[in-house]
User: Fold these one by one.
Assistant:
Number 1:
Amino acid sequence: MELELRHLRVLCAIADTGSVGRAAAAIGASQPATSTQLRRIERHLGAVVFERTAAGVVPTTFGAEVLAAAREVLARVDRLGHSVPACGERPHRELRLAADCPALLPGTLARARQLRPELRFSLPAAPDEPFDLALALDHPSSGLRPTPALAARVIATEPLFVALPAAHPLRHHAEPALADLAAETWLLPVADRKAFRAACESAAFAPATVHQLPQGRREVLDLVAAGLGAALVPASTPPTAGVLLKPLLGAPLWLRYVLLWRRAALGPGLADTLFGAATAAYRELAAEAPHLHSWAGRTFRPPRT
């Protein structure tokens, strides 16, 4: 077989929905047909693109590279039909950009301005203020889906690692099990509470102490470095003084970086540009996380040649 645009769209639909069944519904196909199509694509590529986890279907390291290339190809094809600004896309106005993943914000803004110098951005002062687009973090099981008014594209999916104080008793364990940390004091953003509780239930234990914190993940790492507890952090978190970043055995918890935008505010061409900027920013962020690359090298086999 030869790869066609429809095959690339199947891969992107599976990545965006986190499920073969939901992807099938999104593209108007049956689940068996979509599963068969995925197997044919993987045979053609010579490696597995997705793996099944407790959090849903997530890309392998090889799959993430394939998806990045697929999205770039599809974005270029889409732009061929949008050589002029689409309805609702006013390039000189200010776009309201919300972000609950600050690590992606600088790189995304810098690349967006390189590609579209006329763009201007403002950051909403409060979480409940209206926005035109958003850089969001969510868990694959959260149920976040595109709507007629709101579009969503997954930038990347990665596991959550555990952050421990540098002198922690498990510092020599390459991949501690979540159950090994049952007695820890956990410092968690509110957004992680539900997924964390579900993972603990699957591991047959209840955490001893959980503090829900309004602070961002950067502030939580400062608390971990001070020896006040353990935390969950994205695998792409850069190395932090006084903190050990370790994968959990079996990768029971995953996180998605998602670009959201109001369809009435952004046309397809501008949305593609901003998605490309966010994807490039994520790749740069992940490149600075040696613990992520070490885990991926142990976990996923390279593609056959």
Number 2:
Amino acid sequence: MPDADDFAASLMDDMDPRLLELIRTRINSFIKWDLVRFFHDNPHTTDTADSIARYTGRDVRTVEPELQQLARDGVLMTEDLSGLRVYTFTGEKDVRDLVATFIRACDDRQFRVKAIYHVIRSLR
């Protein structure tokens, strides 16, 4: 008989493979999820980690490393302006479209449950 964890994992893996990969590799924390949603909802924002943390209701000490990782992963871009590092949503259409697909999918409760499952698993 299959292991219960294996069965649960197979149920949770039943989603668009592109979105599953996005969650496993780029949106693998709840902070990143909030940040990706923030930039999707405010696509023309260019701002500092301090301001982004304030807008998202999080501490800058937890937000900044996640912003840096999202930039390394190609979801965000960084630029130094007058000695301040600012972040903006990527201009790459493929990434923006994938993020938009993810955000739309989050409107579905079953998808959100699966996405939450994968984020929690990645935190182990």
Number 3:
Amino acid sequence: MDNPVMELLRPDRPAQCTWTANEGGSPHTKRTEVPSRRKTLPDILSAIGQTPMVRLNKIPKAHGIECEMYAKCEFFNPGGSVKDRIAHRMIQDAEEKGLLKPGFTIIEPTSGNTGIGLAMAAAVKGYKCIIVMPEKMSNEKVYVLRALGAEIVRTPTEAAWHSPEAHISVAQKLQRQIPNSIVLDQYTNSGNPLAHYDQTATEIWEQCDGKIDYVVLSAGTGGTVTGIGRKLKEMSANIKVIGVDPMGSILAQPPELNKGDVGFYEVEGIGYDFVPTVLDRDVVDVWMKSEDHESLNAARELIRKEGLLCGGSSGATLSSALKIAKDLPADKRVVVLLPDGIRNYMTKFVSDQWMEVRGFLPCEPLTEGNKHWWNTPVSSLSNLRKPVLPEGATCGETMDLFKTTSDRQLLITTDNKRVKGVVTSDALLSKLISGAVARTDRAEEAMLKQFSTVTASQTTLGRLSRILEKELYAVVIDSEDALVGIVDQSELFSFISKLDNVAQNGIICANL
């Protein structure tokens, strides 16, 4: 039986690595690969690595940059990301140490890409695989993982890393419950940075013939930064390592860089609320903070102008690299690592609508008929519903309340009228049927913590209509984040229908 007070194996415990630059004799195991690609391969794992180094042309020119800029395209790995490298390396090391044997189950907490790499390797080698990842991560990653045969466990995005419901804690709990299972633990596993120290960094050096002035790397677990940074600095002490960390994360140094009000960020796979063991922050010469708007538009620019089908974290890296490169002379070279590809984000930043809803792209009217109301503020909507659930209500009481009201969403608020979550009739019923909650549980156990919000004075009806094309409702708040009300598509259409010249403007409900 699982021990509920079992101590958490911290992913930020002090590193015990004794590596020192240029001291000679690595304390770690070493793996080298054949530098040239063979004509045929024994399996797909042999295709990991040797990703292309591609010159950026249009983007530097558009930004007035004189120096050379190159992109290391890690999305060419067979699983679609740089994480294929560490997944394969961690499995190889575990097999050689006798920690991973035939019939074992691999369990891993991950933002998705390491999970895909591990699931791909598990499929080839015949292991079972369980991936534990936060709900924030894209559905595309879920579909790929399931296609590879992995079992998926989702955890709350907002859970602190050390909380019992966080993906790290849940993975360790599963490992204690499942016989013959192992958590490879990318946050502490030396195979993570070593995969990049032995291979990725060497590839970058050889592809550039040693001519590298700056290398720009986004930080997640930190293995990429540590492995590449250490190896390249051994090759040349003049190389500057630039670390990229999103706003809302705490990896950057000095700590003052991490201050701010941002808690949630959309870019996936980088940044954490703890400092992983494998991250050597001191190998970074300069840390830079990235933010969603800039990052995701930069990723779209890489796709549109350079034809590089990359993911959002690639945009975070590029946007920081452009700031470094703008002041460099023509004889300097900047290398940017692009961690993953477009496949995982087709319904996210690749979608114009998704970008518009979040304010990352301007929201333009679809037709002439929409223009007369498109830029009207949401505050124009009057008498919005405020279906607030009584404090302390149980799931059973909430289900009974749904039977007596036309509201399909009930809000749970704090003492200062801020919305903590939304309980929907469908979601509550599903959780009751599945046994995820009982009628006697507090309704908060079944509430949705992520939902669309709009600010009454700042959001336009046009942007609200975009949200309601995909969402059943939106929560309206004021400038202090206090509840104003809730609105759905029918209420928005009813308001627009009262405006002048509706018939002549030809408003269509489906477009709202």
Number 4:
Amino acid sequence: MTRGALNFSAVKFSVHVLKPKNMLQPRALSIALMFLVGMSISTPMFGPSPANADETRKPNVIFILCDDLGFGDYGVFFQNLRRQNANRAEPWHLTPQMDLMAAQGIQLPHHYCPAPVCAPSRASLMLGVHQGHSNIRDNQFDKELANNHTLGTVMQGAGYHTAAVGKWGLQGNSAASEKTPNKQAKQSKPKDEGSPKSWPGYPTNRGFDDYFGYVRHRDGHAHYPKEDGKQIWANDEEVADELAGCYTADLFTARSKKWIVDHHSASPDQPFFLYLAFDTPHAVLQLPSAPYPADGGLDGGIQWTGTPGQMINTAGGKPDSYMHPDYADQTWDHDQDPSTAEQAWPDVQKRYATDVRRIDDCVGDLLNLLADLAIDDNTLVVFTTDNGPSRESYLPEKYEPDFFNSFGPFDGIKRDLWEGGIRVGAIARWPGGVAGNRISQSPSQFHDWMPTFTELAGVAAPARCDGTSLVPTLTGKGEQTPSQIYVEYFNGQKTPDYPEFKKSRRGQVRKQMQAIQIGDLVGVRYNVKSHNDPFEIYNVDDDPQQMKNLAARFPDVQRQMHDKVLRMRYPDKSAPRPYDDELIPGIGDSDSAAGVKWQTYANDTPWLGRLDDLVADESGEAKTVESCPKTSVSKSLLVSGIIDIPANGRYTFAVPDNATAVLRIHDATVIDAGFEAGSNPRTGTVMLAAGKHPFRLYWKGSTVAPELAVEGPAIDRQKLRSSMLFQPTQD
């Protein structure tokens, strides 16, 4: 459907906003609805500034992740513009609770997912790394999440009580395939495909104190676990037989509310981290069983009853039956001719709008709960989605996301690297720390949440983390460091041939794809067969649909993009790329002094931190890595320098077997041994071009002296000799 001009007009919807006791009243909704119409601000125009909260008090954190919700499905990002246009040939749906959340917080319309499909996107979120460093890439559903730092482990280590609720899909030891029948499959429960004891990547093995939800990827395709024969796990117990009539968006919300209330009652002074991963509006477009209960919060809204067969208070209705009244009787100008009678919305589109509205109600319910418990001022809530919109319904009637233009003003959907597939947006609300009514134009990506949360929790991000803390953006205090925006992905399908998309992209072969952002320019390439293949280059601020390829104007940026994508990733044999064996180019530095630089830091976390973010206790220079100071267990060491590589070829670097260390060459993590001693390989192999290559060696203090060895063309394994080492020209 065409995007059309945007003009304000009346609408045919009723809007019901749950009224919390201590939150903005419905007038704030009208403010939010106008907010994105040509407006971009970086400072509050009205409303209170963040409270001067006790900086030593760690905020609670709730991270809400949807499944296949598009950028264009948020009211504040796109649907409200269609509503204001009131073009009857361009239908719209509403998200009043998300709009209210946005009015009370900050919008991040330039927020990107790490991959345009669920498993790798969630893996990068959990691990705090982009797809060039994740162990789960492409379509590796149900693969074991790496035994490494996760959002769960770092928040646990910072003193938080942690829980994951909803879809997981990162457990391991389970057959995985992207090929799932395009129909609703009501099947018997699998005989035995594992349990928490046999799933190494189960949430409680990855830093979460509690888990409730779908573990296997395919189970999350249907949304009535008992009726659809799917498994729901509550820690070590499978409980689906007790969940008759439970629609999963309601179920996961009720369980989250119960978990928050129980924790607040038992340990009110301990901060909590909740990862709530909805499995909707993904896959089977099933409807809820009943209207959303009124009011929300502690005593209203969705409630956990604890009674088998009636586990939540909406379980008594008929499954897959409730259509939201705002959409049940909607019609549209199907032929763009006002003189002819309008037709009813297709049933599958009513279902989609209802499912999105249900998530919206769940969000409002949770925010009301925080207000009722008087903890909303000290709770950061982040809302986003795992990738762009899908074209799946798993029903006889086909669903297409161009009815509502769920991809927003962009081209591309789920499994695309055009903006519509990877630019997902986010909303963050924290009344005690984030001033409301703001929009940030800074690009960010999922791996930025780990260092954001660790900074708020008062601990360092792990050394392997690729992200940038978004605290300056959220709080409006300090200067925001630019994020690294990077995506790599393979898919054998094609971009849909929607008329809204640029003609050359309709039916475009995907295969190997890659995207990188440098400054305000985004580079994208499809069907990559060689590293020499050029990036198409776009300024997505001026050209969000990526219609005007600027590559001919920016040959220097083309070269920078080609170099940067080699310097910031580490190949994974399970997801081969045509550029895996390319030589990483050097930096051409010729004026560096001999030796290396070192800094020591206090160990304030139980893991090897990203020391660059901290203030050093001591610093100095040394001739070699081995001549840097040996640090005690209460200290960590950062050694930075430049390695002069004598010839093109494959080089293997190594640290001692009992060292806790991370080695980055350029921005690529070459040795990742920072989780716990003995758990990860102590070597890493990279293709390096002759020339100078910057490195950073993070070293956790111990009885082991810092040491870095190398082996390569004409070099037997040896410690890096002084003649190969130079100091970085800038810290």
